[in-house]
Amino acid sequence: MTWTHLIPVAAIAIWTASPAAAAESQRFDIPAQRLDNALITLGNAAQISIGGIDQRLAGARSKAVHGRMTIAQALTTMLRGTGFTYQIVDTQTVRIVALAPRSKPVRPAPRPAVPPPRASAAAPAPAEIVVTATKQGQALDSYPGTAHIQSVGGIGLGENQGTAAFIARIPTLTSTNLGPGRNKLFVRGIADSSFSGPTQSTVGLYLGDLRLTYNAPEPDLRLYDIDRIEVIEGPQGTLYGAGALGGIVRIVPKMADNGGFHASATVGRSVTRDAEPGYDLGGMLNIPVIADRMALRVVGYNQVEGGYIDNATLGMRNTNRTRIDGARANLRVEPGDNWTIDLNAVIQNIDTRDGQYADIDQPLRTHAANIAQPHDNDFKATGLEIAKDWGDLKLLSSTGIVDHDLSDTFDATGYGGNPEIQIFQGHEAIRLLTHETRLSHGMPSGNSWVAGVSLVRNIDRIDRRLGPLGAPVTLAQLRNQKTEVAIFGEATQRIAPRLSGTLGGRVVFAETIGELMGGSGEDFEPKRRQIRVLPTAALSWKPTSDLLTFLRYQSGFRSGGIAITGGQINSAQRFDSDSIHNVELGVRFGSEADSARPRFSGGITAFYSIWTSIQADLIGSDGLPFTENIGRGTVYGAEINGRWHVTDHLFFDGALFINRSALTNPVEGLEEADERPLPNVARTGGRFTAAWESPLSDRLSLKLDGTVRLIGASSLGTTAPLILEHGETTQLDFSASLAARDWALTLDATNLLNVSGNSFSYGNPFTVALGKQITPLRPRTVRVALRLGF
Prior knowledge:
By secondary structure, the protein is mainly β. The chain contains four helices and 46 strands. The radius of gyration is 26 Å and the shape is globular. The relative contact order is 0.13. It is a multi-pass membrane protein. Keywords: Cell outer membrane, Ion transport, Iron, Iron transport, Membrane, Receptor, Signal, TonB box, Transmembrane, Transmembrane beta strand, Transport.
C-alpha cells in the first residue's frame, strides 16, 4: 500500500489475510461497547479492513450484534443510531463515515423532521486521511504543509522490514547506510554529517507519542503490528521542539482492544545471491483481560539477515550477519467515561558481526580488515499515556523513558604510524526522559488548536578507547546532559469561506551540562542556558474540495554542548546551538482518500531553508571523531508526487524530488568547503510504483506490486577527507501476495537487477580517507513468507 491508501483517524486498520464476501453469512457475537472497539472486533471476526474517518468514533456507543448475518447486516445493526454509516470500498475494505447533516427545509412553514437515512453503502460522504502527527487531527486534504502516510502490512511494506522499507517509498526521506541500527535519518536535505555523536538528530523519531531518540542513531525497529508511518516535512520546532530540523517520522502501532482474542503469526525464509540465507519469525497476541475494560497486546519477533560481505585479510565469507530480536507490549485500560490508559514497552537488540562496506581494490563486496568490526544496538523503552476524549476536545498526557546502548569496534591499524594491529572501541549509553501534556480541539469546519507543555532530559555518556588488541587505553570519557522545558501552541482558523490561517509558537528553556571525565580541554563552560522562541505561520486556500494551495513558514533549533576534540586525548571543546528557518509553497489536487473511483491526485511543493551555525559530527584525517559548527548553509528544492487510480484494480504511484544545498558561509579554517553541498542527500531521486489487485474468487485474492527507485549522487561530507561521491543507483523490487480467509502467502524480491552500486562510502573511519570504501546494495534477495491469522 502507499501513503494515499485509506488511513483511519481512530487507528482502526485491521490486517486481513483474505477478502470476505459482503453477502456471505456468518455468526457474530459482539456486545455493545465503544464504537471503535466494536469495529475492531467485527473487522477481526469478518477478516476485513475497516477504516474510520471521524475522531468521534471513540465517543460513540455501538449496538450489540448477535446471530448469523452478512457483514452488511452486521454493520447496519452496529451503526444504527450512532450517527455513522459505512461504505464498501472493495472486497477487502469497508470505510466508516459520518452521516451527512440533514438539509434545512426550503419552505417557511414548519415540516416534520426528516428521519435520518438508514446505514447503507450508498453515496456516503468522502473519507478523510488524517495526519495525527499534527497533534490536532488535521485532515491531509486541508493540512497546510507536506506530509506522507504509509500503511504497513501490505505487500511492498511488510511487517518484517525496518526503516529502510518506508525510506524506499518516500524519496525525500533518506538515511545513511552503515547497517541496521547504525543510521541517521534525514528529511528534505537537512543533513549535517554521516556520523553519530553528541549533536542532536535532525529528524524527530516517535513510536506513537513516545520519543525514541535524541542524539542516537535511529534504532531501526521492525514494523510488526504497526498500523502506519507518518512523515511530516519541514522544521517542526513549534510542535516538537529541538531536533526536528528536517521533520518528524511517527511510527503508529496498533493498540490492544478488548473486543475479543485474536492472534497472527508470520514465518519467512530469504535467500540472497552469493550470500547466507536468512529467516524471520513474528507473532502477535491480543488478549482481553477484563471485558470492555482492559486488554493486552503482545508482539515478538526474531530475525537473521544473512551476511554478504567477505573479509579478504581474515579469509572469511559473509561476515556481516545480523541478528535482530525484539518485543513490544501494550496494556490498554478503559476505566469509563472515555478515559484511556496505555502502558507501553519496547525492547529490541541488534547484533551485527561486521561492517557492510567494501573496498574498491578488492573483489566485489569484499573488504580487507585485520579484525572483525561488530556493532551492537540495544534499545529499551517504556511509556505511559493517559487520554480523555470529550468529542471535539481531547486531553493527552504522555511520559516515556528510553534506555539505549550502542557499541562499535573498528580496525585502527596504522593509527599514529603504528603498524601493529590496533583496535578502536566506542560505547555510548543514552538515557532519555520525555513528558508532554496537551489539549487539542478540532471542529468539522476545519478550525483546530493544540496547546501543551513538555519536558525532555537526555543524558549521553560516551567512552572511547584505542590501542593494541586486548589492551586498548581510554581516549576520552564524556558526559552531556541536556534539559528542555517548553510551552507550545498552534491554531488553525478559517479566515474566509475558502481561506484559513495558522499561527503557532514554542518557548523553550534549554540547559546543557557537559563534563569531560578524567581529562581537561579548553576553558569551556560546564553549564549553558538559553531561551529560544520557535514560531510558525501558514496560509491555505482551498478554492475547490479537490484543490489546496498553501504557504508555510517554520523554524527549529538544536542546543549546543561539548564534544571530544579531534586528534587530541582527554580533551573537549564547545559547540554552539544551530537554527533553521524554512519557507515552503505547495499545491495538492485530487482527493487523497477517495479510492472508490478512478482518479488522479498529486502535489507539487517547493521549499527554501536557511541553516545557521550548522552542527556536524565529523572525523579527522586520523580517523578520530569530533564535533564543531561548520558555518551557514542553504537548502532548497522541489518535490512532485502523483497517483493515478486507473481502475478499481490497477493504480500507478510516483514521486520525484530535486534538492540543492551549499555551505554558503563556512567558519574560519573550512574555507575550502565554500559552496560545497551538504552531505548524504541525493541531488535527485525518484520512485515509481505499479500495483494490481484482484479477487480470484470469493475467498481468494491476488496482489502484485512493482517499484523502481532511482537514487542520485551525493557527497559523504562537506569537508576533507570526506568529499567522496556515492549514490547513482537504481533498485527494482517486486512483491506478490496470494491471500485466503485466514492465511496469506507472500513473495518479495529486492534488487532484482542485482546492482552492486555504492549507496554510501563509509565503513571504517580510520581508512575512509583513502577513498577506497563503498557500501554496496544487498544482492538480489528473494523472501517467501506465510502469515496466519487466528
